[in-house]
Amino acid sequence: MIPRYLVNFDTESIPCVYTDVIVIGVGIAGLFTALKSAEKHKVLMVTKKSLLDSNTRYAQGGIAAVISDEDSPAYHRQDTLIAGAGLCSSSAVDVLVHEGPAGVEDLIRMGTEFDMEDGQYALTKEGAHSQRRILHAQGDATGAEIVRALSEKTKQDPNIDIWDDHFVIDLITENGECFGALIQKPDGQKVLVCANATVLCSGGAGQLYRYTTNPDIATGDGIAIAYRAGANIRDVEFIQFHPTALCYSGAPRFLISEAVRGEGAVLRNIHGDRFMERYHPQLELAPRDIVARAIVSEMEQTSSMFVYIDFTHESEETVKHRFPTIYETCLNYGLDLSSDWIPVAPAAHYMMGGVETDLYGETVIKRLFACGEVSSTGVHGANRLASNSLSEAIVFGRRIVERIDHLSSVGAMPALSVNDEGKEPMTQPVVEKKLKLQKLMLRYVGLKRSGTGLAKGYEELKRHESFFNSVLSKREEYEFANLLTCALLTTEAALIREESRGGHYREDFPERDDLVWRKHTVFNRMNGMTEGRIDEY
Questions:
Q1: Which residue in the list 234, 253, 288, 525 is annotated as catalytic?
Q2: Which of 93, 267, 281, 372 is 20 to 30 A from 461 in CA distance terms?
Q3: Is 187 part of a structural domain of the chain?
Q4: CATH number, domain containing residue 469
């Protein structure tokens, strides 16, 4: 059984630090929210590695916003709702498409330099977008540019303190209110941080899978600690597998951006045949879940581990200019994007679900907010529209700060004592446990699922729950506890949802069922639920 707290502690014997706002995570959501909060409040940013380590840093494609006169919020709204496969919150999508441009302007004022062409912002088109609305930077290094600009500004802000190499173990709550967090310092000592508001910006859970585009920090920490604290966890069965990650011996699953297909690249099977016309009228620009499953189908039919992405119709000069990072990375492994077909395969990329919030980023726990991939705002539904994630982070980051501005001061940290009597020392190395979990998730809870496989996977995961009875003290142990929590929730949600929709595909229920399943799966530990609650859409 998943415990309320992972470690023993006594709030009256641990040092306590006070601040106005805690921001957990340093991707675009964390950096942007911290900077906006710091205009009026003292902010503490906590990161388990460093200021430059986040998923945002690896984002290639760009940020979606209505900038062009030929585009409109109505078009952006329609594209988002279609991609979301009936599970988007229309009000959340309205917020995104109408407030996104102002958020982009904020990024520009904060120093982000997006690519220009002829005095205008260069816009590209990605999968399932009907218009060119993707702003990018340095060709295919948009995330890195945003992190550069925001992190530089963050380091200069006198109202922001940054704690590198600190791990947030758990949130401290009482009577449905969050008072702050229990944090482990680099030397292993623990400290309490009490704050008027705590904002989870800790990213997703890509490390649930053996093959992922995410860095090793993406271990589902925010979702797990929010679940233990009593927040609602919604729609975590919807995992987006990016269709085109580099699949080459000796190379990591490096992302080949959606924008490459947006600029005309085509997909071919190992026999050289272009195949997307057999799967969707939008061809290579179909929604990501459709493209990913089409690739897997071609791999199965041709007994191959990959397909090819072909961008050789463009000149070497154009490829180098538009996609310098992808070009250089491929070249490091002896592959030339301008003249070679690049082997690719799907890899875990993004979790559509997460910690449920309202339209101002607040969870069901007072003073606890969530922003970015860790959150479930309702924008993405069952399948995220390409490049909407960066927009979501800044739009809801601004709204979170609006709510924080009106919060009263938090009370004193509650007196709380937790002991670990009866817990056993660790026996098996965590690295072995993590690899087994990743293989299990890939096999049973991957791109294609079935009731039989999910039930078997869930049964195996439940046997891992004995891990929670171990004495935990290290970052990798906390991370595995968080991954295991996310794996259990994701697998149970996927088992409950007996249909196929967006990023969730059941071979035994291959059709979408709006009559029965236009609903959300929601888990809440504090209500004693052992099965997901199904809320009407």
A1: 288
A2: 372
A3: no
A4: 1.20.58.100
- Structural domain ending residue among the three candidates 334, 349, 364: 349
Residue that terminates a domain, selected from 304, 320, 349? 349
User: Is 449 in the active site?
Assistant: no
CATH number at residue 343: 3.90.700.10
**Whole-angstrom distance, CA of residue 54 vs CA of residue 32:** 13
- Counting the structural domains of the chain, the total is 2
Q: Is 399 exposed, middle or buried (0-12, 13-18, 19+ CB in 10 A)?
A: buried
The pLDDT tens digits along the chain (537 residues) read 899 999 999 999 999 999 999 999 999 999 999 999 999 999 999 999 987 777 666 666 789 999 999 999 999 999 999 999 999 999 999 999 999 999 999 999 999 999 999 899 999 887 788 999 999 998 778 888 999 999 999 999 999 999 999 999 999 999 999 999 999 999 999 999 999 999 999 999 999 999 999 989 999 999 999 999 999 999 999 999 999 999 999 998 889 988 899 889 999 999 999 999 999 999 998 888 889 999 999 999 999 999 999 999 999 999 999 899 999 999 999 999 999 999 999 999 999 999 999 999 999 999 999 999 999 999 999 999 989 999 999 999 999 999 999 999 999 999 999 987 778 888 778 999 999 999 999 999 999 999 999 999 999 999 999 999 999 999 999 999 999 999 999 999 999 999 999 999 999 999 999 999 999 999 999 774 444 445 544
- Spell out a b/e string for 146-167, using b for 16 or more CB atoms within 10 Å of the CB, else e: bbbbbbebbeebebbebbeebb
Domain of residue 467, residue span: 424-517
* Residue 360 included in any domain: no
Residue 194 forms part of a structural domain? no
